[in-house]
């Protein structure tokens, strides 16, 4: 009985560690992706005001162990970085000068 | 010519051949000159065409406002705000900065005069294109370059000291007419970068500078009237009541960018210097009236 209990405990610990490892690696990938996107947008000169703040807040929540909030803020930061990048690229490729200033 | 004449089926006298070649050459040169003249007509430098279009736009938009009045910014359009402004100008809050700017100038007058021989009243010539550095030089940037050259500590671009010195220089430049030139292709590149910045949508609110300061100039944004782009650079540095101190144009650029939720650039960054180049060029012909007081 005691042996079976020990096996169960070891099994659960193994499962827990595997899941937390998966979460940790997911987190690292998502952070890296967002940071890369932010760098690209910055280079294009179109970064938004709050994107980096949102990313910093996400990291803070993560370090405090609040996974849910951390992912919410990371998602917001990534979404902003994507939209800002789209905006900057569009402005570079297709700048619209108002009709009354065209010559 | 001899060969041509020798092998020609119809033998022409050499005098006739010489005359026809001369005529042909003359015609060729004339055609080339006419073509160059036509091209020059269609290739008016973009900056000059912009200047004409922009000033015409505001003159058409506000036909009751005389051109020189645009130098007073929003006070040319909003009569109530103008009354307040005129009352403030009786004891202007920027006066102390002019005095301390004069002291600062006199402290290193020798060095400054080496860098700015016509100084200190030279604000109307800035920003300008610098051939050697290959970049746009604003007055603030030029002062720090001068200080570096003379082994003096550079000033903080947002700080009171530098802006006091510029306030003094602007005060002595009052009524001098802005005349910003775009002397070569490189300078035109910087000018066009500034223009691109001005007309690019940015930030989470997806606004470009011109959305507020061209199409919506004169309209209300909450309690404030939006100022026209024409005349926006004439009165800097400015004592803004909102700030409670004298600040530079680049601080206002930073504020504008933040208001549309875009990440701002550093003061005196290349982006803002090019923007100032384009922004000031459109005010050619208007007088300097800085330092000024604004809401």
Number of helical segments with 4 or more residues of chain B: 12
Assembly type of the chains comes to heterodimer
Distance between the termini of chain B: 80 Å
Number of strands of chain B: 7
Question: Strand arrangement, largest sheet of chain B?
Answer: 6-5-7
Question: What is the approximate shape of chain B?
Answer: globular
What is the overall pLDDT average of chain B?
88
Biggest beta-sheet profile of chain B = 3 strands, mixed
> How many strands, what sense, and barrel or not for the largest sheet of chain A?
none
Instruction: Please state roughly what percent of the residues of chain B sit in beta strands, choosing from under 5%, 5-15%, 15-25%, 25-35%, 35-45% or over 45%.
Output: 5-15%
Q: Main traits of this protein?
A:
heterodimer, A: 103 residues, mainly alpha, 3 helices, B: 295 residues, three-stranded mixed sheet, 6% strand, disordered N terminus
What would you say this structure looks like, in words?
The complex is a heterodimer of chains A (103) and B (295). Chain A is mostly helical and 103 residues long. Chain A is 80% helix and 0% strand. The longest helix of chain A is centred in the N-terminal third of the chain and has 42 residues, at 2-43. The N and C termini of chain B lie far apart (80 Å). A three-stranded mixed sheet of chain B has the order 6-5-7. Chain B has a two-stranded antiparallel sheet with strand order 1-2. Chain B has a two-stranded antiparallel ribbon with strand order 3-4. In chain B, helix 9 (185-199) crosses helix 12. With 295 residues, chain B is mostly helical. Chain B has helices at 2-7, 14-42, 46-61, 79-88, 95-107, 109-115, 139-149, 160-172, 185-199, 209-215, 249-259, 270-281; strands at 128-130, 135-137, 220-221, 224-225, 238-240, 245-247, 292-294. The A-B interface holds A 42, 45-52, 80, 83-84, 87-88, 91, 95-98, 100-103 and B 44, 46, 49-50, 53-54, 57, 196-197, 199-204, 206, 210, 214-215, 257-258, 261-265, 271.
